[in-house]
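Troubleshooting log. The previous structure file for this entry was overwritten by mistake, so regenerating from the original sequence record. Sequence copied from the archived sheet and checked twice against the printout by T.R.
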Amino acid sequence: MMTKMMAGSLGLEEPWYIGGVEFDEKELALHIYVGIRKGAEIACPVCGAQTKRNGYEPRERVWRHGDVMFYPCLVHCRRPKVLCLNCGSVQVNAPFERKNSRFTLLFEGYAMLILADMPIAKAAALLRCDEKSLVKIMRYWVNKAVDGMDLRDVAMLAIDETSFKRGHKYVTLIIDAAKRRVLDVEEGRDAETLKLFAEKLSARGGSPEKITAVTSDMSKSFLPAIAKYFPKAENIIDKFHVKKVLIDALDEVRKAEQKSVADKKGLFRGRRLFMIPKAKLTAEQSAALTEMSKRYPKTGRAYRIVAGLDDFYASRAMDEAEKGFASLYSWMRRCRLKPMKEAAETLMRHKDKILAYFKNRITNAICEGISSMIQAAKRKARGFRNFEGYASMIYLIAGKLQLAVPRPF
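Regenerated output below.
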């Protein structure tokens, strides 16, 4: 039964068989020896024609398999060759292997389960193998799943960026706004990233012409690229990035007022209070904010404008939103606060793209919703020296991939 169990875990069927099992007491490892019946007919790996064994490869090969009773397990096999009338002499792969890998398929399946929940260094220690090998395993199966993505139904996109390394190294994330999954990870944050995704979209059954809405920030690279590569899409400025424009202006007002008041430390210590949305204030915070707004009137005025933006986004219809935008813009222009006046002009330049939110109501909250997973990917990808390893970890955690790797359980 033990032999039958091992054959099953390796996916062996006749004419393949377990030739022997040994436990090395010095090495503290289990060794399984796999063979193939003499005279058995074997399908040609190239054309599928029935052939017979024509010798073996020169040397025995060894693959790492799943542990047995906590001991490392190694599989040994001299793979056969066949002489095909159509293809000539051809090397036959074993049922348990992937080409160019020194790990069995079941081991790789287990490794992928571990990598989805554990940093690379810890996974390597647990599996007792080196990190480079794990990275190669992950990249192979992730890339295979990504290449096989069916993107026919993709119609709405969210575009965001995140840092890769210190020193302004960024990656662009393309997210399916409907299914909330990462579709593409591109190095950089320029127009070229969207061009590359448009090409991948076409190659995987989708079409740039079918994209109806794209939400992004106000990037001078993204906005024209969206119009160019997704010509029929509604271009939407994400409301969280709009709010960031006002929050930054509020902070400039606060810093300027801080220089002119006697109690500088009071305003500095209370700066975070002005960043809390009005709807999320507790009764105690609301009372404290009212008092600070009286003591620091300019910062208080700027805060009320930011709160007015939240009221604008609460609009239920386009005509209501248009009136709300006009009212907010007028207020910002008349507020006698230079940073807010400049922010007002920024909003006006993007008015149509801001109002487009009320047609589709998609935001980069989808991106923010998976940002914790992206941060987890960063932590798990520590030690990766290149973009490819980092991108693979993002796909694995946030891509909702259909991995073809065998699952051990």
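The mean pLDDT is 90. Archived copy saved in two places this time.
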